[in-house]
Structure formats: C-alpha cells, structure tokens
Design a protein that fits this description.
NAD(P)-bd_dom_sf, SDR_fam, alpha/beta, oxidoreductase, SDR family NAD(P)-dependent oxidoreductase, 8-stranded mixed β-sheet, Sec_Metab_Biosynth_Oxidored, 41% helix
C-alpha cells in the first residue's frame, strides 16, 4: 500500500486521481478547505494559501503517517477576480496557493524512495515571469496571475532535486470542470470557453487515465513535463535553471519574512 497526498482532492482532477488510488487499495490523504465524501479517504482541512497551514499539515502528516510515496498538487482557484486578494500573511492569494504552497510541500514533506511529485499546472506555454512583481499585485488580473503562478511552477519543477523523488509537471489543457469554466468574468469569454470545452475539452476520467500513463512513462526521469500525453521540450526558456535559482532565492526570503510574523 502506497501513501498519496493530494491537494485540491475534493473536485476535478484531484478528486479523480483520489478515486483511482483509493480503488487500487492505497492510502489517500486529501488536504482541502472542506471535507469531501470519498469513502476511505483521509481528509485534513487547511487553508493552503497560508504558509503556516502548510507547515502545520506537514508536521501532522509526518507525525501520523510518516513518509509518503506521492504528492499530487491540484489546489487552485480559477474564479475570475478583479482585485488582488491578500491573505492573513500579507501575500497575494494566487501566488500563495498556486506557487508558494507547492514549493513548501515539495521541499518539506518526507518521501520514501522511488516517490513522485505531480504538479498539475500548464507547462509548455511561453509567457514571461514578472520578477519585479512576483505576486502580480500591480494592475491585477486573475487570468494573468494564474499564468504567472504556472510559470513559477515551471521553474520549481526544473530546479527540484531530491534523491529518490521525481518531479512531473502536467498540463491537462482544456478540462470540463466547473472551476475551469469560471476563469473569465466577461460573459462573452465564458460563452467562448464553453464552446471550446465542448469542442476540444476533456473529461476528468480521460485526464486521470492519461496521467496514470504519464507517471508510468516518466518513471526513469528525475524531471519531466507533459501536455496531455506529449512530453514538453525541457529546453524551453520557461525551465531556465538560472532563473530557477533566482526564484528560489526570492522564495526563501518571502518565507523567512512570513515566519517572522
């Protein structure tokens, strides 16, 4: 029996993967704001936009369950927002949940040998990172803030190095979920997105099956990235190791400031 930790496991891809691993007889721990209803799943409630909550969950898991065999990162807020949402720790919510939480969990959890981290994001897309406004507070736009967080995750994966733990970035493209349909506030864009999902969107079960195959295919690689079932070219600028080191330096400073609060 393997132990899997899934963030964002109460809906969408996270829930689909939780069902898959539970059906295979594994222990599945789901961290989310609200408790779900999957039979035999272990639910731990937390606000992962807060660094302190991430550290609390890590301590809880390691004390109660020990090292884990897989970390699946799906927690995301896709709902359109006009204004930046600032957490109790003084950080922009999208940055805190979709990047900083993933950084903390990836680097601080204890893993067994031959483990994996699956970071569901959007690798394979070229868009710039604004290092001068890493949280994307100025001229806030929730779509651009999400895109920025995803590029930070590209660098997180590219720079990740822990013995016995492989890192997989995964882009599911268009998925027919409620969250994905709430990305845009503009009614016309929502209609457009609904049409796109109807024409080229994928059901959650299909994406889960693709992810399972990707995890098998990438088993010999310490770092890999995929769009659906196709490997992403790791020579893309979005995986630049020097920018990754720069980001890690900034991230450690951010966390140091938060822990001093």
């Amino acid at each position: 029996m393997k132990t899997l930790l899934i963030t964002g496991g109460t809906s969408g891809i996270g829930e689909g993967l939780a069902k898959y691993y539970l059906a295979a007889g594994n222990r599945v721990i789901i961290v989310s704001r609200n408790k779900g209803d999957l039979h035999n799943a272990i639910y731990l409630q937390a606000d992962l936009s807060l660094a302190s909550e991430n550290y609390r969950i890590i301590e809880n898991i390691q004390r109660t369950y020990g090292a884990i065999d897989g970390l699946i990162l799906c927690a995301v807020l896709q709902t359109a927002r006009k204004d930046a949402l600032i957490t109790q720790e003084g950080l922009e919510f999208t940055f805190a949940l979709q990047y900083l939480s993933r950084y903390i969990l990836s680097n601080q959890l204890a893993f067994n040998d031959d483990s994996f981290i699956l970071n569901v994001a959007t690798p394979g897309i070229n868009s710039p990172i604004n290092f001068d406004d890493l949280e994307y507070r100025r001229k806030f736009n929730s779509v651009k803030a999400n895109a920025n967080a995803n590029r930070l995750n590209d660098l997180l994966g590219a720079g990740f190095k822990r013995k016995g733990v492989r890192y997989i970035l995964y882009n599911p493209m268009a998925v027919r979920t409620t969250g994905a349909r709430s990305v845009f506030a503009n009614p016309l864009m929502r209609i457009f997105l609904r049409v796109v999902h109807r024409l080229v969107g994928h059901e959650v079960d299909e994406i889960v099956n693709r992810i399972v195959k990707v995890l098998q295919e990438s088993s010999s690689q310490s770092f890999s990235a995929y769009r659906l079932s196709k490997p992403v070219d790791l020579s893309m600028k979005t995986f630049d190791p020097q920018r990754g080191k720069h980001l890690e330096k900034i991230t450690k400073k951010v966390l140091s400031n938060v822990r001093e609060l």
